[in-house]
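Summary of Year 1 activities. Much of the first year was spent building the evaluation harness for sequence design. The harness presents a backbone, in tokenized form, and records the residue chosen at every position. We chose the following record to illustrate the format because it has been used consistently in internal testing since the harness was completed.
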């Protein structure tokens, strides 16, 4: 069974994280959750609240389910994994300073292994220096995390650039997940797609 690595931390967005966790499992991939430490982490839900008297310009955060990391970043051997899934929430804001995670992230880009990024997950790839010359999408408030690190922001629900598949939020998963699964299955069969941008 091929493994997919999913880094998380406190304030990982729960829909961003749990949907792919179960969806990839349905396709026969073993999703291994990793964190700064091997422990339970606090998930959160982000949404723009409907029907409030005072409108919100940005998502509100509230507690959600907890997710357990099976392994700590410093114990991860990236050679053991076929792909990487970078989920969103506020967790990437501090995870991007973890040098072990940055080392792990570079491995997947250097080896052209499939990488999926949703929402704030782009901050990890940016900090690892992996977006230079690449096209990707994310939520509008994270556009600078692509462009200031040498990439091109494309405001579309799905952007595929070689081994990199990106989406704005979990609302676009119906387009995003099938493409990531396709790349993983190609990797499993020894066929890695070339670096051709498709939108």
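For this record, the design step produced the sequence shown next.
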């Amino acid at each position: 069974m091929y493994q997919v690595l999913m880094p998380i931390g406190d304030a990982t967005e729960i829909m961003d994280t749990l949907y792919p966790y179960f969806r990839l499992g349905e396709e026969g991939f073993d999703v291994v959750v990793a964190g700064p430490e091997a422990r339970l982490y606090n998930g959160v839900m982000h949404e723009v609240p409907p029907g409030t008297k005072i409108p919100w310009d940005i998502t509100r955060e509230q507690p959600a389910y907890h997710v357990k990391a099976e392994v700590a970043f410093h114990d991860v051997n990236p050679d053991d994994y076929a792909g990487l899934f970078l989920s969103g929430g506020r967790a990437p804001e501090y995870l991007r300073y973890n040098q072990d995670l940055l080392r792990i992230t570079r491995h997947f880009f250097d080896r052209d292994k499939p990488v999926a990024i949703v929402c704030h997950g782009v901050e990890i790839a940016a900090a690892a220096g992996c977006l230079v010359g690449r096209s990707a999408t994310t939520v509008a408030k994270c556009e600078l995390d692509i462009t200031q690190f040498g990439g091109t922001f494309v405001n579309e629900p799905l952007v595929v650039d070689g081994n990199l598949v990106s989406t704005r939020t979990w609302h676009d998963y119906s387009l995003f997940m099938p493409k990531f699964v396709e790349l993983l299955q190609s990797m499993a069969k020894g066929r890695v797609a070339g670096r051709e941008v498709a939108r």
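The helical segments are 14-26, 91-95, 99-110, 122-127, 144-147, 173-188. Quantitative recovery figures across the full test set are reported in Table 2.
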